[in-house]
Specification:
By secondary structure, the protein is mostly helical. It is built from seven helices and no strands.
């Protein structure tokens, strides 16, 4: 039977690898190796490879349905903004889009999507749901 890896324990052991005491380093390394074996995994499986530059994580069907359902519910609840509120929201959205475009880790697909939002703003087709999505995207990317 395999034992699940405990994240906090792995982090504590990894931090010991920098110890000036050779015995502490060796003990931590052996314990890390033992934990991996007990969990039936390897470093290769545990450490994720670098994602390609244009990688966009896909939502599984359940998460996608949930996201779509939430958007439908919120669309019904949206109240129209006054012209002044819409102008302020659009200005905030444009500033946020520029910040996201300036990130060096933004994929080509994300950049294209953000440029599309800029076009929507210019054509007065930018919605409250689009704005909420941008805020959520920024929160996710800056974690």
């Amino acid at each position: 039977m395999t034992e699940p890896l405990q994240r906090d324990e792995l982090i504590a052991l990894l931090s010991k690898l920098g110890s000036p005491e050779d015995e502490e380093v060796l003990t931590a390394a052996r314990q890390l190796h033992g934990n991996l074996e007990a969990a039936g995994t390897s470093w290769d499986e545990l450490i994720l490879p670098e994602e390609p530059e244009d990688y966009e994580p896909a939502l599984d069907d359940e998460a996608e349905d949930e996201f779509e359902d939430e958007g439908e519910e919120e669309a019904v609840e949206d109240e129209p903004l006054s012209p002044e509120q819409q102008t302020a929201q659009n200005a905030e959205a444009l500033a946020l889009i520029e910040k996201l475009l300036a990130r060096p880790d933004s994929s080509a697909a994300l950049r294209e999507e953000l440029e599309g939002y800029k076009e929507d703003i210019a054509e007065d087709e930018f919605t409250a749901a689009d704005y909420r999505y941008l805020l959520a995207l920024q929160a996710r990317l800056t974690k």
